[in-house]
Write a structure and sequence with these properties.
Blueprint lengths: L10 H7 L13 E7 L6 E6 L4 E4 L1 E3 L12 H6 L4 E4 L1 H6 L3 H6 L2 H6 L4 E4 L3 H7 L3 E3 L4 E4 L6 E4 L1 H11 L3 E3 L12 H20 L7 E6 L5 H11 L6 E4 L8 H14 L6 E3 L5 H9 L4 E3 L2 H6 L3 E4 L2 E4 L19 H5 L2 H7 L5 H26 L3 H12 L8 H9 L8
Parallel strand pairs: 4-14, 5-6, 6-10, 10-11, 11-12, 12-13, 13-14
Antiparallel strand pairs: 1-2, 2-3, 7-8, 8-9, 15-16
Helix pairs in contact: 7-8, 8-9, 9-10, 10-17, 11-15, 11-16, 15-16
This protein binds zinc ion (ZN).
The site of zinc ion (ZN) has 8 residues, from helix 13 and helix 15.
């Protein structure tokens, strides 16, 4: 039976054949093929071809710090079906340093990771981790936590480090302000981020191998976001990120900024929503038209014994699981659930870091499996039903649905059932 899904087989070729300036620019090492679009909402399933392998989207990208994900090896990550993960430029740029990593044939060689890597600009980490940072037109000035010397991270320096790391996707250096800041500083940061994008594009030594993504800023102002979208989409970058959100703003503001962004981003380029990783947020933001996500939450929360499950989370350390011989999630097929019980993990958590490792594996598997199910439902033309079933499992009664999620989904024609 044919599903009511719009399909497009060769979107990229169609785009290139247009007699526009775009066809004169360098071909990027990335193509995005739209596999299916939800006929109801803005959700889409794509095949993102990157230098190291193809990435089916929507996709969740786990976050590593110093080249490895805490508590998990590259092999295990590969076995879980992860096709792209994040490397942290700030930590790697400091220690062991780009020169050493370049010697190891880049970050792929250093961590022996055969699939794709995305690196951040390093800027966000500085502003959030280092108290003494100062932003000027030249760049971000900060004191190194590893020695105390003053370091200036410019857009050129950020790209130089990311070029040495050899990531498949590099992020521009942007001027980050907290999403709760208001006033003229928000516009200043947005305008500066546009200027820094131009400097990053000019500095990229490997445009044929490494994709540079722009980051849409503009705080919580519809006008500033729109102005940033107008400016940045004039540039021929391979992809766009939606930045400056997930920083403690109201969820009502958050989803409206996301939705405005996807309304104005080009259809044939990937859309990466930064710093989003809660299951509900992922599902809603796929409905709003986002393709890629990252967040430290699933791995960080695992280290505190919190396992992600379709009904929310399960605290392995709680007494109630001491004699519970079921796996974390009876329906999960990850290596942890196949082998270990809640009781075993509960006991292990008292004195062995291997417990964190087992829950980390489960949580990454949960995120990747969730996104695969989302994708399949879009391809099958049943995404709205998937969302309704997902929300029912997550919330025991419909009066517990978060208001923002109900509103966001309604804005894309998905009305949740009452139960
Ligand atoms: Zn599991």
């Amino acid at each position: 039976m044919a599903a009511p899904v719009r399909r497009e087989t060769d979107a990229v070729a169609a785009d290139i054949s247009m007699p526009s300036l775009k066809s004169l620019s360098a071909v990027s090492p990335l193509t995005l093929r739209l596999v299916a679009e939800c006929p109801v909402s803005k959700a889409r399933a794509c095949d993102l071809a990157l230098p190291h392998c193809a990435v089916p989207t929507p996709v969740f990208m786990p976050v590593g710090t110093q080249g490895t994900l805490k508590g998990i090896t590259s092999d295990q990550l590969e076995d879980l079906g992860c096709n792209i993960c994040l490397g942290n430029t700030y930590h790697l740029g400091m220690r062991p340093g780009p020169a050493l990593i370049e010697k190891a044939s880049g970050l792929h060689g250093f961590m022996n990771w055969r699939r794709n890597l995305l690196t951040d600009s390093g800027g966000f980490q500085m502003v959030s981790l280092v108290e003494l940072s100062e932003v000027t037109e030249e760049g971000v000035k900060f004191k190194s936590p590893y020695g105390g010397d003053e370091i200036l991270l410019t857009p050129e320096k950020s790209i130089e480090i990311q070029n040495s790391l050899g990531s498949d996707i590099m992020m521009q250096l942007d001027d980050v302000v907290s999403s709760t800041v208001t006033g003229p500083r928000v516009e200043e940061a947005m305008r500066r981020s546009v200027r820094w994008l131009d400097r990053c594009m000019a500095a990229n030594q490997n445009p044929e191998k490494q994709n540079l993504f722009a980051i849409i800023q503009g705080g919580l102002s519809l006008e500033l976001r729109k102005a940033c979208l107008d400016e940045m989409t004039k540039r021929d970058v391979p992809g766009f990120a939606i930045g400056g959100l997930s920083g403690g703003e109201e969820k009502d503001d958050f989803w409206k900024m996301v939705s405005l962004s996807t309304d104005h981003l080009p259809r044939h380029k990937p859309r990466y929503l930064m710093g989003v990783g809660y299951a509900v947020d992922l599902v809603v933001c796929v409905a709003l038209g986002c393709d890629m996500f990252d967040c430290v939450f699933p791995t960080r929360t695992a280290r505190f014994g919190s396992a992600l499950v379709p009904w929310g989370s399960l605290q392995v350390k709680h007494k109630q699981f001491a004699k519970d011989f079921k796996p974390i999630d009876p329906d999960c097929t990850c290596p942890t659930c196949k082998r270990h019980s809640r009781a075993y993990l509960h006991a292990l958590f008292k004195n062995d870091t291997a417990a964190m490792h087992h829950v980390t594996i489960h949580n990454i598997s949960y995120q990747l499996t969730l996104m695969r199910s989302v994708r399949q439902s879009i391809i099958d033309g049943r995404f709205p039903d998937f969302v309704k079933t997902f929300m029912k499992k997550m919330f025991p009664s419909s009066d517990k649905y978060p208001g923002w999620a109900v509103d966001a989904l309604r804005s894309v024609n998905i009305t949740l059932d009452q139960h």
